[in-house]
Design goal:
eight-stranded parallel β-sheet, 9 helices, 17% strand, alpha/beta
Length: 232
């Protein structure tokens, strides 16, 4: 199937899941996770009406920016952001979804100040407590959200998570529910309902994420096909 056909199929599944949850499909932003896919694939997704594109790797993103691969769609940075790469990302993307430490939060704010802009961000929640993944522990997210409030050059839009790999069908749902509860609590008590992005769900579980309240899903393989990591 082509990229455009895959997007149509994913949107249909999002619509079914949204209907089951009593939601409108238009509430959900579909981000095409375009890691290891070239500029032409990105352009095809944009032509097919993808809501946004998401990149995991700074070097790959920089190359595709030079090729104007993302023209016509918002760009999200969705991978682990190293501190020494902050200057290459701030101001180049619409949203940095993967802010997982107070140090990174402050570095982004400082670089945005130098550029005279406000950078939209999400706080990444390490909801499974996995050592191999970055992100705030659930009990530390509120402090990070408070810190974001005090910074003039970042704008917190919401939360993001990547749950542990599910060993059974619908296994991600308990993790999604916990992150959504955090999001609702922070949004109501600290941000007066100004937050609008809850980024949860990838190719294997995006429908469950929609049923659980995600407003953003990051879908790669189901749109672009299986990645060949042997040539990465």
């Amino acid at each position: 199937m082509s990229v455009s056909q895959n997007i149509e199929r994913v949107r249909a599944e999002i619509a079914r899941a949204a209907k089951e949850a009593g939601r409108e499909p238009r509430e959900i932003t579909l981000v095409g996770a375009s890691k290891m896919n070239d500029a032409n694939a990105c352009r095809e997704a944009i032509t097919a009406g993808i809501d946004a594109l998401g990149e995991n790797r700074v070097q790959e993103m920089t190359q595709k920016l030079a090729e104007h691969a993302y023209d016509g769609a918002p760009l999200h940075f969705i991978g682990h952001l190293q501190r020494n790469k902050v200057k290459q990302v701030v101001g180049k993307v619409d949203v940095i979804e993967s802010v997982g430490s107070l140090e990174l939060l402050r570095l982004i704010d400082g670089q945005a100040e130098k550029l005279g802009l406000v950078q939209d961000i999400l706080l990444e929640v390490n909801i499974g407590g996995e050592d191999a993944k970055s992100g705030f522990a659930p009990e530390a997210v509120r402090e990070a959200a408070e810190q974001a409030l005090s910074l003039a050059h970042v704008r917190l839009r919401g939360l993001m998570c990547i749950p542990p790999v599910a060993e059974e069908e619908h296994g991600s749902i308990p993790y999604f529910e916990k992150v959504r509860a955090l999001y609702v609590d922070i949004n109501e008590k600290m941000y007066h309902n100004r937050l609008d992005m809850l980024s949860m769900g990838m190719s294997g579980d995006y429908a469950d994420a929609v049923r659980t309240g995600a407003t953003v899903v990051r879908v790669g393989t189901a749109i672009f096909g299986t990645r060949n990591y042997a040539i990465s």
